[in-house]
Specification:
This protein is α/β, with parallel strands linked by helices. It is about 50% helix and about 15% strand. It contains 15 helices and 13 strands. This is Sugar-binding transcriptional regulator.
Length: about 350
């Protein structure tokens, strides 16, 4: 038996294309509101003439509101958007892509959001929203959530709300020390934001991510640091991003001799101070303060969040070392490139 969508693809393909285009416009308005027509046209790669007719249609259907400040989505438009979400995943083949990627990477679950965060910045918000949903489904009783740094983790923090936690008792802790990047993208700041948005508690770890063995041995003797490291090791959920190897090496101000090891080893991905080549082999390891890959086998839920077609190799490489408890949350751009 053909499904209704399969029949429409055969008999009315143009209708599905129009529906996809209007759905994409509605989604973009929702994330960019209030947004002007020119800005929206540039974001979607459409001419202003084509966008004008579509915007007029959406306005006539009372799905959007047009003001001098820009376009916003109406409550009716939001309902339509939410109602279409599942259908559009079938139409665009995302559900099928998730199954293929799950088998390809041998993971428990793969979640793909529409779009490519390299091309459309607000897709990162969708990654954050998808991660928040998966977190909520897995939280029961008392929880310690260890959170890494990065812009994607910051997007996850933005999507958490007071109704997220429910009746659970949850503590947010940084998964590792800071690497000296933008303070708002450091693990400590992201933990604080997550705690603030959900009404939960958090702890901080004010130590550098990368230290010598002598400094590390000195740090872990400090009572406060020792206590936080103990909490991190007890985490039942970990949230982390995946980085491009060369980008992360530069952010860490990696020494020239270590940079040579990373480049000669053809590293493409990085997570928790481990640099992986395309075969998933660790070619370099940075001594870091916090969680290490060996700890992951004891953690009940690991959520890896990363998107953008430019990160496809990094994601595939890092996922080769993933545990059975890992859920990958990525976007269409990365997923298509990995599968190709």
């Amino acid at each position: 038996m053909y499904s209704l969508i399969e029949l429409q693809k055969k008999l009315l393909p143009d209708m599905l294309l129009i529906m996809q285009k209007r759905y994409q416009i509605l989604r973009s308005i929702r994330f960019m509101e209030p947004v002007g027509r020119r800005t929206l046209a540039q974001a979607l790669g459409l001419s202003e003439r084509i966008l004008r007719s579509e915007v007029e249609f959406l306005n006539d259907q009372k799905l959007i509101t047009i003001k001098t400040s820009g376009m916003t989505i109406s409550q009716q438009g939001l309902s339509v958007l939410q109602g279409l979400e599942g259908i559009m995943r079938d139409v665009s083949g995302i559900n099928e892509m998730e199954e293929r990627l799950k088998k390809e990477l041998n993971l428990q679950e793969v979640v793909i959001v529409p779009g490519d965060s390299d091309e459309t910045p607000w897709v990162k918000q969708e990654l954050g929203r998808a991660c928040a949903k998966r977190m909520k489904k897995r939280l029961v009783g008392e929880n310690i959530i260890a959170v890494a740094g990065g812009t994607t983790m910051a997007a996850v923090a933005d999507m958490l709300t007071f109704d997220f936690i429910g009746n659970t008792n949850t503590l947010f802790v940084p998964a590792r020390g800071g690497i000296g990047e933008d303070v708002k993208n450091e693990a400590n700041s992201i933990c604080a934001k997550m705690a603030e948005n959900t009404g939960c508690k958090h702890r901080v770890l004010y130590v550098p991510d990368q230290v010598s063995k002598e400094v590390y041995d000195s740090f872990v003797k400090e009572p406060i640091i020792k206590e936080v490291l103990s909490l991190i090791k007890k985490a039942n959920m970990v949230l982390h991003g995946i980085g491009d190897a060369n980008v992360m090496a530069e952010r860490r101000n990696t020494k020239e001799e270590d940079m040579k090891i990373i480049q000669d080893g053809h590293a493409v991905g990085e997570a928790f101070g481990y640099y992986f080549n395309e075969a998933g082999e660790v070619v370099h390891k940075v001594p870091t303060v916090g969680l290490k890959l060996d700890d992951f086998s004891h953690i009940e839920h690991v959520l890896a969040v990363a998107g953008g077609s430019s990160k496809a190799k990094a994601i595939k490489a890092c996922m080769k070392s993933a545990t059975n408890s890992t859920v990958l949350i990525t976007d269409e751009g990365a997923a298509k490139k990995i599968l190709s």
